[in-house]
Every structure is written in structure tokens, then in C-alpha cells.
User: Fold this.
Amino acid sequence: MTYLLPFDLTRRMLSEYGLPLARTACTKDPNEVRWQFAQMRKPVVLKASGGGIVHKTEKGLVFLSITCREQLDDCIRQIRSRAGGDYAFLLQEQATGAELIIGGKRDPSFGPVILFGTGGIYAELLDDVSVRPAPISRKDALQMLSETHARRCSSGFRGMFMNKAKMAGLLQRASRFIVEQKGVAEFDFNPVIASEAGALIVDARVVMF
Ligand code: ADP
Ligand code: MG
Assistant:
């Protein structure tokens, strides 16, 4: 049996490996959401997490580009009416840039593998990925970045820019994560949003044995 790691533990594991998550507040209390909203850089994103929710967008549980209290209150209401079960609100600073995916799994015959590619909601549709046995060297990481269409972002594409050095570092640390954390069956960070400054994980799914 496998299970999805709850957000707070996921956050802790990512931080141990220097895997950068966008600033996120996780709470069940709508008033805490409102308080956190006041502290964050706008725009922000509101989502629901937990309660067996996997594909948040499909369930209408991702609200982007929130800039004011009225909008926030409306999104809280919509989540309350749509999300069943034991969920929490995730309030997150909105990132801009190229949407990439980093994933990993423990393959029964190949052992741990690491994946990089074009991410976001089209990740499965495009299937534009590069895969290696983990762990990977820096050279491997840089090679993986150049093997998918995402490489076009490293020289700037329609305002999107991938910082190759930082993305390679992130990919290496993610490969170490799947090698060392033997309780992890698979994970994906989809998307990782890359910009000139670096990269931020905005959605992390970690499946445990
Ligand atoms: P899910 O994959 O479960 O539907 P995500 O958290 O990945 O939920 O959100 C869906 C999409 O919304 C992402 O692919 C991305 O395009 C956008 N998104 C979510 N969070 C952010 C964020 N913090 N900044 C920018 N875009 C975001
Ligand atoms: Mg996602």
C-alpha cells in the first residue's frame, strides 16, 4: 500500500534537501488564510490540499491571480462548497516563468530514476521528458536540461527564461532525494516554475510506501 505524504511533511522533506518551495501557508482555518494573505506578496494562489485530493485543477480547486480580499473570500467560499472531506487551504505566492516537471521513482528493475521535462497541465499530453538512473552528476543534469524542448527557455523564449545552473542543481538534489529516502515510492514536482533568478516548486506530490 502506498499513501500520499501530507503537505507539512512534504514541506519538511523538501527543505532538508534544499528543494525550494514557493512561499506557502497551509491551514484549515479561513481566518488564518485571510491573515496570511495580508503578509504575502500579491498575486497569490489559493488551493485545497489533502482529503484524498490529487488533481486539484480537475476538481476546480486552484484559484490563480488573487489580488484583493473580496476575491480571496469568494475563492474560500468556492473551495468550501467543492472540497469534501478533510482538506486544508494552501495559500501560495504566485510565480511566473516556464513550467517544468521534475519527477522520480523507485523502479523495480532500474532502481531509483529521475525525470525532467516540460511541465504544467500539459506534462502528460506532451510527454517531453528526459530520464536517468539516480543519482546524477552535474554533467548528467546539464545534459538532461538540453534533451527536452525546455532547453529553448535557457536562452529565453517568449519572456520565459530558465537559469540552467540553478535548475541543474535542483535536479541533482532531487535525484539524491529519491536515492536516499527509501520510503518514497515516487514523487513529482509539477510544475517547477523557472525564471532567470532560479526556480520554485509550486506543486509537490510525494507518494510513500
Ligand atoms: P494540480 O496539478 O493538482 O492541478 P497545481 O498546484 O499544479 O495543481 O496547480 C495547477 C496549475 O496552476 C499549475 O500547473 C500552474 O500552471 C498553476 N499554478 C499553481 N500554483 C501556482 C503558483 N504558485 N504560481 C504560479 N502558477 C501556479
Ligand atoms: Mg500540478
In short: The two ends are 6 Å apart (CA to CA). Residues 22, 45, 47, 55-57, 62, 64, 92, 94-95, 99, 120-121, 190-191, 193, 202-203 surround adenosine-5'-diphosphate (ligand 1) (CB under 6 Å).
